[in-house]
Design a protein that fits this description.
six-stranded mixed beta sheet; Alpha-Beta Plaits; ATP-binding; 11 helices; transport; alpha/beta; ABC_transporter-like_CS; 299 residues
C-alpha cells in the first residue's frame, strides 16, 4: 500500500492543558478517515496540526515519508475565513491555487454557482459559504485533504454531490481526514473510523470490514431475569456485554456464532429473551462511541 500520511505520538499542549495526547495515525492512498468526537475532544486541533497551522509540542507528521511537508495538505475554509466584502469570484481568485478547478467543483456541489460567484460573500447563506470553502480547499492538488464538519449547512443535493467528489478524488491516490458528527456521512464517505476522546484516538474501526460482513454482531435484548455481566461473558457466544437497565443489554456476539445458539445458552441458565433487535452498522458504531465517552467521563 502507498502510505500518504503518518503521525507519530503527536502531542499539543496549550499552557497546562494537554489537547492532543500521543496521537498516532497512518493513512494510505485512497483512505477516507472519519474522525468522530464531541466538541472539545481535539478534532479541529488535530486537523489544524496536520495542515501545519499549529506546531506540536512533540511528535512528528510525515507526508509521503517527508517530515512536515504541509504544502501537500489542504484544509477546508470556514465561512468566517473569507474576504466578506469581496465576491465569491474574487475570493476564489485570491484563495484558490487553481480557480478554474475550484469553479468546476463548485458547479458540482451547488445549483446556484453563478449567484455565489457574483455576490459579496457577506450576503451568502451559511450553506453557500460552506460549499465555496470546500470547493477552494479541494481545488488544490494535494495528497491530504482535511475537512472539518463539511456537511454543515448542505442540502441533500450538495451533500450527495460532495460524497461523489470525495470518492472520485480518493480513487485518484490522495487521502481524506473528515471530522464529522454525522454517522450517515461516515457510512457513505469513509472506509476507516477513529474515535477521539479527550485528545486520544481511543478506538479505530475498519468500516470496510463491516461492509464485508465479517465483524461481530451487536444485538439489543430484554430478558425475563436479572443476571450479571460475568455470567454473560462466560458464554462462548458473547464477546462483550453492556447493561442498559435491570433487564436490558447490548450484546456483541462472536463472529462465528448464531443468535439461536446464544438463545439456547441462555435457556440453559433459565433465562429467556422477551425482545431483541439486531443493530445496524451505524447504531453499532454509535453505541461503541457512546460507551467510550462514558468510560472517559468515569476516568
Amino acid at each position: 500500500m502507498n502510505r500518504i500520511l503518518k503521525v507519530d505520538n503527536l502531542k499539543i499542549k496549550f499552557k497546562n492543558d494537554l489537547i492532543l495526547n500521543n496521537i498516532s495515525l497512518s493513512l494510505n492512498a485512497g483512505d477516507v478517515y472519519a474522525l468522530v468526537g464531541i466538541n472539545g475532544s481535539g478534532k479541529t486541533t488535530l486537523l489544524s496540526s496536520l495542515a501545519g497551522l499549529l506546531s506540536p509540542t512533540s511528535g512528528n507528521i510525515f507526508i509521503e515519508e517527508k517530515l512536515n511537508q504541509f504544502n501537500q495538505t489542504s484544509m477546508s475554509f470556514q465561512p468566517t475565513s473569507f474576504y466578506a466584502h469581496l465576491t465569491g469570484n474574487d475570493n476564489v481568485r485570491l484563495l484558490s491555487p487553481d480557480p478554474q478547478r475550484a469553479l468546476n467543483i463548485l458547479k458540482k456541489l451547488d445549483l446556484t454557482t453563478s449567484q455565489i460567484m457574483k455576490k459579496k460573500v457577506k450576503t451568502l447563506s451559511f450553506g453557500q459559504k460552506q460549499r465555496l470553502g470546500i470547493a477552494i480547499a479541494l481545488s488544490k492538488n494535494a495528497k491530504v485533504y482535511l475537512l472539518d464538519e463539511p456537511t454543515n449547512g448542505l442540502d441533500i443535493y450538495s451533500y450527495n454531490k460532495l460524497v461523489e467528489v470525495i470518492h472520485e478524488m480518493s480513487n485518484q491516490g490522495c487521502c481524506f481526514v473528515i471530522a464529522s458528527h454525522e454517522w450517515d456521512v461516515i457510512e457513505k464517505c469513509c472506509n476507516r473510523l477513529g474515535m477521539i476522546i479527550n485528545g486520544r484516538i481511543e478506538k479505530e474501526l475498519d468500516i470496510s470490514d463491516y461492509n464485508n460482513d465479517v465483524q461481530p454482531k451487536l444485538i439489543q435484548i430484554k430478558v425475563n431475569a436479572e443476571f450479571s455481566t460475568n455470567e454473560l461473558l462466560e458464554l462462548d457466544e458473547v464477546r462483550n456485554a453492556n447493561r442498559l437497565d435491570r433487564f436490558s443489554w447490548q450484546i456483541t456476539l462472536n463472529q462465528n456464532c448464531t443468535f439461536e445458539s446464544f438463545q439456547d445458552s441462555l435457556r440453559q441458565k433459565n433465562v429467556s429473551i422477551n425482545e431483541w433487535i439486531t443493530l445496524n452498522h451505524v447504531q453499532e458504531w454509535e453505541s461503541i462511541y457512546n460507551q467510550l465517552i462514558e468510560e472517559g467521563n468515569n476516568d
